[in-house]
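[step 3/7] inverse_fold.run input=structure_tokens len=361
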């Protein structure tokens, strides 16, 4: 079915493989693992079939930015884990965050966000300030602050289930109740907890997203994000994503689906290890405080002992620990000890939260 007599080298190099036989495409047997659909565009036998897919009367794929089968598989998997109606796969966690915010907000508006969200999220909200979106930063653990921000007219409340970098755990049912009383939308970053530890939609969140680059993927070999919510919300977010273009590559989508197959096992082991570390460190004389939530543990050194580490990193007092590491190599199966990490400082205007932190794994 490939080359035809008379084709020159150029034609052969393009068309030599041919369209493939029926056995290659569709047979009574199917691949056990979904293939990687490494294509950016689909062909149709006629215009009517293209129109049918375009107007949604037939299922199918048209163009990579609109969605590919590997996206669908990842979306289905994360939606099932989070217990959501629908999901949208994006090129990164930040892509998913941006799609969520742009779908939920319009005409400027006010957002209430936890002060200790991931630095990239902080930066994105600052960036949205140029488009009239004002952010009121709150301590999500203080309901009076959250309620005051909502009373000021915030239409969206954004929190992390377990915060990065301070490892604070959000009281999602209380936050959802407060948001809904004020007619606001609760958006939750569930990257650190994953659905193995917490399913925010079942606790009242309106939408939830992940940096799948971290625990969902689990091997530090992909960059991806996934947003989960109601079908109408995801339809809006997908329209935003199709227009702004944070499109996930099919290979990364495939890797994420593969990585997620061991999510539950990894999270159980990571949590056990974090607890062992936290328990050990809590008894250590040089440790002033330990915070541990799920898979992440953070410690603060007693002030008098912080000094000797200053050669390592100026003004260093606080460590973050996890079996898979926090920040850069966070959520990985590999045990890593990165140098002290400044990702947060790079991105965040308010340096105060993280100036004395170190990422260990
Ligand atoms: C909690 C959290 N949310 C979102 C992100 C952004 O994800 P990505 O780096 O995949 O864009 C990160 C990245 O570290 C994160 O830690």
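[step 3/7] decode complete -> sequence:
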């Amino acid at each position: 079915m490939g080359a035809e007599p008379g084709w020159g080298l150029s034609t052969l190099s393009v068309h030599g493989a041919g369209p493939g036989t029926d056995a290659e495409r569709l047979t009574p047997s199917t691949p056990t693992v979904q293939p990687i659909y490494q294509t950016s565009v689909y062909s149709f036998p006629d215009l009517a079939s293209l129109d049918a897919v375009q107007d949604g009367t037939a299922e199918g794929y048209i163009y990579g930015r609109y969605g590919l089968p590997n996206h669908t598989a990842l979306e289905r998997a994360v939606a099932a884990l989070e217990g959501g109606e629908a999901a949208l796969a994006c090129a990164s966690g930040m892509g998913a965050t941006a799609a969520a915010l742009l779908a939920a907000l319009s005409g400027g508006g006010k957002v209430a966000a936890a002060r200790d969200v991931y630095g990239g999220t902080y930066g994105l909200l600052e960036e949205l300030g140029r488009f009239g979106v004002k952010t009121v930063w709150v301590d999500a653990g203080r309901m009076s602050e959250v309620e005051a921000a909502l009373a000021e007219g915030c239409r969206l409340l954004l929190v992390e289930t377990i915060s990065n970098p301070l490892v604070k755990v959000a009281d999602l049912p209380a936050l959802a109740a407060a948001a809904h009383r004020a007619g606001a939308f609760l958006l939750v970053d569930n990257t650190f907890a994953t659905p193995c530890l917490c399913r925010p939609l079942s606790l009242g969140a309106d939408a939830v997203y992940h940096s799948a680059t971290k625990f969902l993927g689990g091997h530090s070999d992909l960059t991806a994000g996934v947003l989960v919510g109601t079908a109408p919300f995801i339809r809006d977010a997908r329209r935003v994503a199709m227009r702004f273009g944070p499109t996930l590559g099919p290979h990364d989508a495939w890797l994420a689906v593969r990585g997620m197959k061991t999510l539950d096992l990894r999270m159980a082991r990571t949590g056990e290890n974090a607890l062992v570390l936290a328990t050990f460190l809590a008894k250590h004389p040089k440790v002033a405080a330990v915070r541990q939530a799920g898979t992440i543990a953070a410690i603060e050194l007693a002030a008098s002992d912080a000094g000797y580490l200053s050669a390592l990193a100026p003004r260093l007092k606080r460590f973050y620990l996890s079996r898979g590491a926090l920040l850069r190599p966070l959520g990985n199966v590999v045990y890593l000890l990165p140098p002290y990490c400044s990702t947060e400082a790079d991105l965040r205007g308010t340096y105060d939260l993280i100036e004395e932190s170190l990422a260990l794994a």
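[step 4/7] annotate
The chain has two domains: 67-261, 264-359.
Confidence is low (pLDDT under 50) at residues 305-329, 335-361.
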